[in-house]
Structure prediction request, 637 residues.
Amino acid sequence: MSSKTPIISVRNLVTKFGSQVVHDNLNMDVFQGEIFGIVGGSGSGKSVLLNTILGLRQPNKGSISILGHPITSLEQVTALHLQSRWGVLFQGGALFSSLTVGENIQVPMKEMEHIPPDLCYELALIKLKMVNLKESDFFKYPSELSGGMIKRAALARALAVDPQILFLDEPTSGLDPIAAEAFDNLILTLRETLNLTVVMITHDLDSIRRLCDRIAVLVDKHAVLGTLKTLLHNKHPWIHDYFHGIRGQLALAGTQE
Amino acid sequence: MIKRTKEPWLRVQVEKDLAMLIPEGEWTAKNATDIENTCLNLLKQSLPKTLLVDLSKIKEFDTAGVWLLQRTLETLKSSGYSPKVENAPKAFSILSQYLTVYSPPSQEKNLSSSGFLSRLENLGKITIDILTSARDLLIFLGQIAVGLFLVVLHPRRLRLTALIAQIEKAGVNAIPIVTVMATALGLVLAYQGEEQLRRFGAEIYTINLVSISVVREVGILITAILVAGRTGSAMTAEIGIMKMNQEIDALNTIGLNPMYILIIPRVLALILIMPCLAFISDLGGLLGGGIMVVESLNVSPQLYIYRIAEAVTVGGFWIGIIKAPFFGAIIGVVSCFEGMRVKNTAESIGRCTTRSVVEGIFLVTLADALLSVFFSKIGM
Prediction:
């Protein structure tokens, strides 16, 4: 929000699987330093949208630009060294199963070449502790971790190179409330200190309330953008049900007006 | 004294008994090597005991930069300096608060004792490993035997659809490749055999050589090797991924026994299709040999077939075929066993699939050798 030029902009995106249209002329902008939430029902194309932004999937139509560079393929992403400027937390963690947690965190750092190996090791430990994992977890393999620990280790890997943009796919699902709160705090701190831009897919209404500056709701193949306050007044039936259901009311109590 | 290297740098100003350290530029991960060198240089200099770190000039920083600066200050502190940080941007102090908690431990490494001892230890580990997997394989074999027995007693437990699907995948779809390979092998055998036998003027015995070796040994062995490579590996990978995905656990909780759903249909399918594939492979081998014999020995096809009938006894034919179900069972049991041993890593899928093919072919060859000895002892 500090600058008017968007850090990520999606223009007229069309995504199709065969004859099934997932996104139809979807538009959205994400600005520097904001925490941007993406919500939507199952099958509304949240993860597909994320994959398209990351260049993992070619859009059928439309354009996407990140940090001012248009992205249409993974080759372009690699050529622009964008991967050292973003970190991605996948839904299932996607840790490399043949590497230990510590090695997993060091993978993106070693890719950067400028960091001496000893420093890589120290920084990896720091990231590990940032996400509240124990030192002893450093030498464990992903198969020895619980679901929540995998999430946190994957977040540590996403944060490895201090990215400018952090993409999170359901970061707090599968975490206990204490861990989820610690996660929210960590994201807020990082945003404050590193001016991080965060794009997160989430269903966690508590996270949405605490973190998100703006929200995109994927309904009817489009994105409805707004802040939590404006979306609370939105008349669209799905959006209304989403925020005014019993769960929504419990989580957002006090936010109304 | 102004020190100025590439960005980022650390300006040092000495005034009597006070030194000002002024970090400037980008203190980020991409400049980590430069920052580290700068910091190490600083540690080498002799400075007044009181240090003032002025952070007002720092342009950009991230955890790597903050950590490096902090590490340097810690080292300075422990060697008797008293550094004081001033004008830190708010974000910097928050970040450094996050980092002060962390003092990385020294790198732990499991140092092995002496070379000889560690090798001995390894030898012991491998021995135990082999013995336990042999024991587990035996247990698994027993479970399958019980399962098969129960299926015979209660035929309704048999998953017919799964069985037929497996027969199609492992058997019917393998017919073309089995035929082609057996034919090629028959050709090769005939050519090599004819060349040697011609020296004795006995080239007509090429027919005996080819037909007996194909029908008794080569046909079934090449089929078994092919099935182990083609179907055995696929079965291991399939079951392994299902295990990683917790699909096996899901089956168990629903009350479906993976033994009857996954393993028995696969093993049974292999037991049933192997004799058929062996028969097809025999025909292919004889066809390949025939092409060569008819082509270069001026033997009519009728005579070739007649000579085969003379050379190959009915017993000889059955010796080849009777081995097939055993080989099928070996391949099926080994590949399912290895599939169930897959752990939660991508690496273990690769390891188990390799092992399934290698162990399958090894055990098939071993069984073939034992059966050959057995058949020759009983005079067949």
User: Anything to note?
Assistant: The interface with chain B takes residues 84, 96-98, 109, 112, 114-116, 119, 121-123, 125-127, 129-130, 135, 139, 141-143, 161-162, 189, 192-195 of chain A (CB under 8 Å). Chain A has two domains: 1-85+165-241, 98-162. The radius of gyration of chain A is 18 Å.
